[in-house]
């Protein structure tokens, strides 16, 4: 019970600290919407040709925006933990009789909350722009679970990156997770890319995540998509957690 209390306490701490970072919340809500509007209204006409005009580009794009939004929000943990490291807060935590990993879990919980709120806002705006959700209650639940799992993984990647870098360098991770989804099926179908990029995109985890989101929103999700996701996600999560906790102990 004590461990859960430590995590709850650190979650409250992360929440109150996040309220002081107004720009972080604004970025989480505004940036995904800006990208969505830019692609739909500036590039949408051209990209619909890639879909052979068989589908509204907004319907195709939204799952990719979800992927980019999650990456942008979840990587904020890199800057947060790097700042705590440079300010000596992490060392102070290590001298306290608490679950040593509780600050990480606390930050993760708030990042999950922020990501869910960001995606909800994106979905509402997309719906106002004529997006139609064809999913079911089951697909909605799966979508929520995958969001939580992916945010957790990226958050811990952020922790690992932030523990190795300074505050200035830590922010680079956010740009990486915004732009790497472009080399996937997030923005356009893979068959419209050069052969080399098609191969990279085919095996990209961003494609796997985007296609699960697409399957949940369009009610076309398959068991093979979920299996493929599980096969790369589980080892990735284990490896990242082990390396992060090992580095965290050495701060």
Summarize the structure.
The chain has 12 helices and no strands. With 251 residues, the protein is mostly helical.
Keywords, please?
globular, 12 helices, mainly alpha, 79% helix, 251 residues
Number of strands: 0
- What's the helical proportion of residues? over 70%
Q: How would a textbook summarize the main sheet?
A: none
Which structural class fits the helix and strand makeup?
A: mainly alpha
On the 0 to 100 scale, the average pLDDT is 90
Write up what this structure looks like:
The protein has 251 residues and is mainly alpha-helical. Helices cover 79% and strands 0% of the residues. The protein is built from twelve helices and no strands. The longest helix is centred in the first third of the chain and has 29 residues, at 22-50. The two termini are 26 Å apart. The model has no long low-confidence stretch (mean pLDDT 90).
SSE map:
Layout: H1 2-20, H2 22-50, H3 57-74, H4 76-86, H5 89-94, H6 102-128, H7 137-164, H8 167-170, H9 172-179, H10 195-202, H11 205-218, H12 223-249
Helix pairs in contact: 1-6, 2-3, 2-6, 3-6, 3-7, 3-9, 3-11, 4-7, 6-7, 7-11, 7-12, 11-12
